[in-house]
Amino acid sequence: MRPGPASAPVTRIARLALAAAALVACHAANAQDRAGAADSPLISRYEGSRLTYQSVESFVQVALPTSYDYKGQDLKQTLSLEGARERRLYLAPAGHTPLEIQRGYVDALSAAGAKRILSCEQGQACTFAAMLIKQKARSELHQEHDAGSRAFDHQEPSYHASFQLERGGRTQYVTVMSSSGSGGVVGTLIDIVTPRAADGGGVKVADANAIAQALGTEGKVAIYGVNFDTGKADIRPDSKAQLAEMARTLERHAELKVFIVGHTDNQGDFDANMALSQKRADAVVAVLVKDYGIAGSRLRAAGDANTAPVASNASEEGRARNRRVEMVIQ
Questions:
Q1: Fewest CB atoms within 10 A around its CB: which of 194, 242, 293, 307?
Q2: Pairing assessment for the beta strands 299-303 and 258-263 based on DSSP bridges
Q3: May I ask the CATH architecture of the domain 208-329?
Q4: Distance (Å, rounded) from C-alpha 49 to C-alpha 12?
């Protein structure tokens, strides 16, 4: 199936094939593609485009814009996602406009049943916010693919759209941004994010003895065994062992009063991260009181977002260390 805008020939539209509620792309190989790169199994290229950049990351955090403010001058809200991200940059064949390319992808995704979360086209009130997204993409690409980043170096607003897609019991998010740059080159950046929980990386639950020792020597202890789903404050069932050790520490040391502090990395909107870190700290306090009988007067929840990192946020490993709960002596 090759859905697309009515004004464009179907042979020039990004191709999607829908079968048994799953999308299967029809690949279009190109001798000028980057070595080793290939179209996603989810969505293929606009016909005739060259795939000049590809990255596949197993676990990252992505801030997905979900709305603009009423004047279109900023991003209003973002959805914080954690999971795998595939990123591909296509350069369009000569003679095609960013609008033409973008419409091909938008129409194809819509026809395949994807839910549009957000979109912006040139001339709409959201163009300034779309510029912010464009500048971020250009900055990210410049570090890894300077030639491709030039597709986004003009000041004109780009065309931007984000979709949520349900297939095979799995939720995925697709972001498409098309823009023109130096020399008339038209680039389309496609991100596909598949949310999933971290595999834990071998992090062990901190037992009561280790927690008490750290509190005694440092006055605080970082807890990595309390887990939450992406963007949520609901404590996952696999956190029970760690919560039990936290409660055991408090039971053994009846004099202890502690802050329960939530921390995030620096990805996404700061205000949203601050609110999320507070909600997660509140959730931990609530469970310690309700399920483990710890007196609420001994606990106080606080959210610090990304104001107190313990590692650099420049790498995923560092960001994973920064996403934590802490016990801090009051």
A1: 293
A2: parallel
A3: 2-Layer Sandwich (3.30)
A4: 10
